[in-house]
């Protein structure tokens, strides 16, 4: 299975030094979407993109505090985690 063209372009734009952080960000976003989906299916929560974005930044901040230094480089311009 090949990656979609948009994903391939995004991967090419990321420098090899930032690839680890980019991979962490993909995992983080997928995890938060999955958790939000479960809330919608099992708890009757209405889908809300904004709540997923907030959750990504909050959980991403926690990951950075726990040592995800490559992710810190991607999120630090948007958070006060330095």
Question: How does this model look, in words?
Answer:
The structure is a single chain. This protein is mainly α and 82 residues long. It has one domain. The protein is 71% helix and 0% strand. The termini are far apart.
Structural topology:
Layout: H1 5-13, H2 19-43, H3 49-65, H4 69-75
Largest sheet, in brief, is:
none
Structural class assignment: mainly alpha
Binned strand content: under 5%
Give the overall pLDDT as a whole number: 84
How many helices? The count is 4
Number of strands: 0
The parts where pLDDT drops under 50 for at least 5 residues are none
What is the terminal separation in angstroms?
38 Å
The global form is globular
* Fraction in helix: over 70%
Quick overview:
The chain has four helices and no strands.
Structural key phrases:
4 helices, globular, mainly alpha, 0% strand
């Amino acid at each position: 299975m090949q990656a979609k063209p948009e994903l391939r372009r995004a991967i090419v734009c990321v420098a090899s030094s930032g690839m680890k952080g980019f991979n962490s960000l993909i995992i983080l976003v997928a995890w938060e979407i999955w958790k939000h989906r479960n809330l919608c299916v099992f708890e009757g929560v209405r889908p809300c993109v904004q709540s997923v974005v907030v959750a990504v930044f909050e959980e991403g901040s926690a990951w950075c505090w726990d040592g995800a230094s490559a992710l810190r480089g991607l999120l630090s311009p948007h958070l006060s985690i330095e």
